[in-house]
Amino acid sequence: MVFDGQSGQAxxxxxxxxxxxxxxxxxxxxxxVIRRIKxxxxxxQVLVRGDSGFCMPRVLDALEQLNQELKDIxxxxxxxxxxxxLGLGQAAMAAAADQYASTRRHVxxxxxxxxxxxxxxxPRHVVMKAEHxxxxxxxxxxxxxxxxxDPQMVYDRVYCARGQCENYIKDLKNALNADRxxxxxxxxxxxxxxLHLAAYRLMYAIRLAAVTASPELxxxxxxxxxxxxxxxxxxxxxxxxxxxxxxxxxxxxAAAFASIAQVLGAQSSA
Length: 270
Prior knowledge:
The protein is an alpha+beta fold. Helix content is 43%, strand content 19%.
């Protein structure tokens, strides 16, 4: 799944086999999307965020090659901890542990260093969050091209913002049932996924229209939007020139429905 991190609009989706790695075809999708963005907006800065499932050499190499070719392409990707990373961050973790032992309060320290996995062609910049709380130590690592920015800002303001994408996926899976891919063939399930994605974009258009037509619905999740506006009995009549929808007089959100429909181009009936 690829989302616009600012607006929440769905950009694209690609179905992969259930036994494939999460990052399969990610580099291909990113090349296509980023090239399209740069063709339309040559001076745009592109930041790719993702969890550790996408921290694969082919993805990192692809993004760095795109940066050399198109400029202003950056990434912030989680990276799974390993003994080498823990060793490089040992001093920060020790400082956090000492401070927690003396204060018994939640502690977070941030640091950064160069690191090169065996499968990497060259060292890369890694930001570390050295956290210690009542349960245990909680070190986290992020690999990024943003090596001139304060480590805490990279982690808190840049990387952690990717968590909002979980809400977008929640809208797609829970409100629009996008995980119902029960056909017998892979191609049929891929088509179903694309139909769910089209439904997401339609629901997104409704919520976007609500910004001016019905502000109280402009930030709700899709399942709430569906229950309030769409899950209602209606009489639908289609003629050659138009589709007429008659809502029940007791529909409590009739005014919001009408306002949003008009923003989307519907005409009211006298």
